[in-house]
UniProtKB/TrEMBL annotation:
Chain ranges of the WD repeat-containing protein 75 second beta-propeller domain: 523-803
WD repeat locations: 336-377, 591-632
GO cellular component, one term: small-subunit processome
Database matches in InterPro entries: Beta-prop_WDR75_2nd, Quino_amine_DH_bsu, WD40/YVTN_repeat-like_dom_sf, WD40_repeat_dom_sf, WD40_rpt, WDR75
GO BP terms: positive regulation of rRNA processing; positive regulation of transcription by RNA polymerase I; rRNA processing
Pfam families hit by this protein: Beta-prop_WDR75_1st, Beta-prop_WDR75_2nd
Name of the protein described by the UniProt record: WD repeat-containing protein 75 second beta-propeller domain-containing protein
UniProt source species: Verticillium dahliae (Verticillium wilt)
Stretches the record annotates as Disordered: 1-98
Keywords: Nucleus, Repeat, Ribosome biogenesis, rRNA processing, Transcription, WD repeat
Predominant location category: nucleus
Lineage top rank: taxon: Eukaryota
Start-end of Basic and acidic residues biased regions: 1-56
Location in the cell: Nucleus, Nucleolus
Length: 937
């Protein structure tokens, strides 16, 4: 590491047209970071016993999920660090990384509690039909838990399937020894073995009874969907080629299954069944040898090509086909077809008169069974993943692929509840149902580009993330679309609002006539002004590759030049509700003979202005001015002056001006250029890193005159990913990390990054962000499916904190109003990296297990209040009516309005709240009455 010197700044003495060259003594010295490697031990957290508290239903249900995530990890083979190890390692150096918050809603059916009580949240897969206070949660490795969701108690044991696999499972209630017990039907499939349906029942703490009910004919058949009736008499499963329908009979746990296996015309994606009593008075045909049962089993299936098939009274038909001379060789079904792609979910209504289905069209479809008449609820915010009908049939719960869920009233078809998480693009952890059938177009399973995000400069609890109109829309096509800005509150961890920044396709017709998905623009850059009154965005759209693949190279290039759309937009931010209003739109802010890519967007920290860097080699500085018409100031409907944005300064980056200066030779593509830039802290200078591969030049531009003050060589290697300023240092991230002292004119230190496979780990997922409050910067090094976060001081190459995150980081942001960093990964989870001792650091809404809300304290308080009430009643009885008379002034109850309490507790964010002692005195001041003013004698 080169030490700092006391020499004066040399930037003003340098010829702006001459590049500075270092002598032999001014060499870069890269310091390899000593990685803090920890023993990858899987630790089992302590199982804290928690007693019941009826007033904490929601918290206990959430705690169930946390217990599951931190439970027995003996069968987990992924090499990731335990959360406690991550926190303890960071805290030892004064920094910590939080537990992740958020994530994607799992592709499983939501669950209504037995009374559909909206005050309690249930986070699981199946509700116990015998004990409504318990829920069942299963894992693909064969582990199945039973939780008391009201008390939030962690189970003492785990049900493990024999094959240690589970494809799907359902819960039934079967009478065992005159008592009803939960029986778990599990679909299992081990490699090279047949698919099986196995029944499990826990009899006591140590005895687990199991019974194999069905085996597939061939080893390549796996039952991926399994459903059963509540009493366990009927079981229906689906494999890749057909359906399995069976009846279960027997006493206690001596169960026997009679199954029928038949082929279907399409791949089954979802199914639902319904059992009704057979109508009295219907006679059995004379030629029918099998007497039908007293119940009718109707099965509806949704298939991969959009069709739905209704099998009415399917068991009777299958039994009649088993005879020696069956009239029909195939099971006849009634067909319903409206969906263009896979039917992702279909359910019966409670009365059996309607079917409810959903798919990739962003539309909920209601089918009248008798007439096949359809009713639509279109323009949902995402594709439908799952549908569940409430026990009373008065509500539908819908899970959408934009990481949200809503409850819709069946009478008015209006949402009554809406829950949303982070809706950014996320990696697919399971195969999408639309890809079960090979189609035109492509769906990426990985996040292909970093996700633009920003924290509000004035309020670090407001996170703004660029999202799409659903997971499918974002990941389909050749371009990862993200035309919507989602505002997220980190304190309450809830979505505040969403607003479209570019054109969207809010309709069910979201595919072309050729079957390709309609691509939407992608927001590539966002930045807030220092006063948070302005937002600048850049959106980019190109024709899908499927539309131009069959063209000649010349025609393809000409079409790309004509149809590519790049817009720079300026939005005014409302001070009341933080809504956005478009003020100016600049078409192709950087262009030569074609629109050029905007490589970087930066906001001036000292004034409301922005700068853009384009692939044309130009830097443009944008500022606003009051809009005038005929010499008069233009105003809006509220009387406010209107502004418009325009380019006030244009600076060329050396000899790189214009994309045509790097022509493509025959057989070779034009050299790719990269760039990044950042303002100085006082806004007087703009540091720009721009050039082709291994150019390594950083330009220092005067933002007032447009003069290039100096050029620094060898500041980056390969492609520059980010340049940040932390006065007097500039930090560049490319194939390595370099910290340069501008005042001392020397390289402070460098960090050599590990080599990575460019095909599996895109370099664009390397991030760099500075925190001006704590005078630190954070760096993210990407790996195949994980990332490493390191925090440095610019004066010291030894990292303050270095941790591994088991997901790829897609965004890294910081705020000028608080210290610390917030990272977003490809599982839609948020991580905070903060200094332990800094009370003003960015804080996420803490998980409930971190709050240590022990319900025994609440129970003790309740019991204590009850004891005091009993004692008070006894005292009143003993004293009889000899009570002391009190003045009316002393018996008045203190009344405190909600507004007063809201003004007290909502006056500031959590990190800026007064001490507990001060809050105590303020609350007691509201409860006590003011003393009467004494009058002079």
């Amino acid at each position: 590491m080169v030490g700092k010197t006391d020499q004066k700044p040399r930037a003003a003495d340098v010829d702006p047209n001459k590049k500075r060259k270092r002598d032999a003594s001014d060499k870069q010295r890269n310091s390899d970071i000593k990685r803090n490697r920890k023993d990858e031990k899987q630790s089992t957290p302590k199982s804290d016993k928690r007693t019941s508290d009826a007033n904490k239903l929601k918290g206990n249900a959430l705690k169930v999920l946390s217990e599951l995530q931190n439970g027995d990890t003996a069968n987990i083979t992924t090499k990731t660090k335990d959360q406690s190890e991550l926190q303890s390692a960071g805290e030892s150096n004064g920094w910590k990384i939080s537990s992740p918050l958020g994530g994607r809603i799992a592709d499983i059916d939501p669950v209504f509690s037995s009374d559909a009580n909206p005050t309690a949240s249930v986070l699981t897969t199946h509700l116990s039909p015998v004990e409504p206070d318990f829920v069942w949660v299963g894992c693909s490795d064969g582990r199945i838990w039973k939780f008391n969701w009201r008390q939030g108690i962690k189970p003492e044991d785990t049900l493990m399937t024999k094959s240690q696999t589970a494809l799907d499972f359902c819960i039934t209630a079967i009478k065992v020894n005159e008592d009803l017990h939960d029986v778990v039907f599990v679909s299992e499939k081990k490699q090279n073995d047949e698919g099986t349906i196995v029944a499990y029942c826990r009899m006591g703490a140590s005895h687990l009874a199991s019974q194999i009910l069905f085996k597939t004919v061939r080893p390549d058949q796996a039952i991926h969907v399994l459903r059963a009736t509540a009493d366990g008499r009927y079981v229906v499963g689906a494999h890749s080629e057909g359906l399995v329908v069976g009846t279960i009979a027997g006493q206690d746990l001596e169960l026997e299954g009679d199954f029928f296996n038949f082929d279907t015309s399409d791949i089954v994606c979802t199914l639902d069944l319904r059992v009704t009593s057979r109508q009295q008075g219907l006679s059995t045909p004379k030629k029918q040898t099998v007497k039908p049962s007293s119940e009718v089993l109707d099965v509806i299936i949704g298939c991969g090509r959009g069709a739905m098939f209704l099998y009415n009274d399917i068991l009777t038909k299958l039994q009649s086909m088993r005879g020696p001379k069956p009239k029909q060789k195939e099971v006849q079904a009634r067909k319903f077809h409206w969906h263009r792609r896979a039917v992702r979910s279909v359910k019966w209504s409670r009365d059996g008169h309607y079917l409810v289905s959903g798919g990739s069209e962003n539309t909920l479809v209601l089918w009248q069974v008798d007439t096949a008449i359809t009713t639509y609820l279109p323009h949902l915010p995402g594709a439908i993943e799952n549908i569940v009908v409430s026990p009373s049939g008065a509500q539908y719960a819908i899970h959408l692929d934009d990481n949200s869920a809503m409850v819709i009233s069946t009478s008015e078809m209006k949402p009554v509840t809406y829950v949303s998480g982070i809706q950014s693009a996320a990696r697919y952890f399971a195969q999408p149902k639309d890809t079960l059938v090979k189609r035109v177009g492509e769906v990426s399973k990985e996040v292909r580009h970093p996700i633009p995000a920003a924290l509000s400069p004035l309020d670090a609890t407001k996170l703004h993330v660029c999202v799409g109109t659903g997971q499918q829309a974002m990941m389909s096509g050749s371009q990862q679309s993200a035309p919507i800005l989602q505002s997220f509150d980190l304190d309450s961890f809830t979505s505040v609002s969403k607003q479209a920044l570019a054109r969207t396709q809010p309709t069910d017709v979201n595919i072309t006539a050729q079957g390709n998905p309609i691509s939407e623009p992608a927001i590539t850059h966002i930045a807030f002004s220092s006063d948070a009154r302005w937002l600048a965005t850049v959106d980019d759209w190109s024709p899908p590759t499927g539309d131009i693949d069959n063209m000649s190279p010349d025609a393809k290039e000409h079409l790309l030049q004509e149809r590519r759309e790049i817009y720079l937009k300026f939005w005014s931010v409302s001070a009341e509700d933080e809504s956005l209003a478009l003020t100016s739109r600049i078409n192709s802010p950087h262009s030569t003979s074609r629109p050029e890519t905007v490589l970087a967007l930066a906001a001036d920290p000292a004034a409301p202005r922005f700068a853009t860097l384009g692939d044309d080699g130009l830097v443009r500085i944008w500022h606003f001015k009051t809009r005038q018409t005929d010499g008069l100031t233009s105003k809006d409907t509220k009387g406010q002056s209107l502004q418009s944005w325009s380019c006030g300064l244009t600076v060329g980056m050396g000899s790189h001006v214009g994309a045509d200066v790097i022509p493509a030779s025959e057989g070779h593509k034009a050299a790719k250029r990269s760039g990044s830039m950042s303002f100085s802290e006082d806004g007087s200078s703009l540091f720009v890193a721009f050039g082709s591969q291994d150019d390594g030049t950083v330009y220092i531009v005067d933002t007032h005159t447009g003069e290039t003050r100096t050029m620094l060589e060898n500041m980056w290697k390969g492609e520059v990913r980010s340049l940040q300023v932390l006065s007097p240092y500039i930090v560049t991230l490319s194939n390595d990390l370099r910290v340069y002292d501008v005042v001392a004119d020397e390289l402070q230190y460098g960090v050599k990054l590990p080599k990575r496979d460019a095909s599996s780990v895109p370099a664009a997922f390397a991030h760099l962000q500075v925190d001006k409050k704590s005078r630190t910067f954070a760096m993210v090094v990407p790996y195949t499916h994980s990332s490493q976060i390191a925090v440095f001081k610019p004066e010291d190459p030894q990292p303050l904190c270095i941790e591994t995150v088991p997901h790829r980081i897609t965004s890294l942001v910081s705020s000028a109003s608080s210290s610390g960093f917030v990272a977003l990964d490809d599982a839609a989870q948020l991580w905070s990296v903060t200094e332990v001792s800094d009370q003003s650091a960015i804080s996420l809404s803490k998980p409930l297990e971190d709050l240590r809300l022990d319900t025994t304290i609440a129970d003790d308080a309740i019991n204590g209040d009850a004891d005091e009430d009993d004692q008070a009643s006894e005292i009143d009885f003993a004293t009889g009516g000899d009570n002391m008379e009190l003045d009316d002034d002393e018996t008045h109850t203190a009344i405190v309005s909600r507004q007063k309490l809201a003004e007290l507790f909502d006056a500031a964010p959590a990190f800026a709240m007064p001490s507990i002692e001060d809050m105590f005195y303020k609350v007691t001041g509201l409860l006590t009455t003011k003393p009467l003013a004494s009058t002079a004698a």
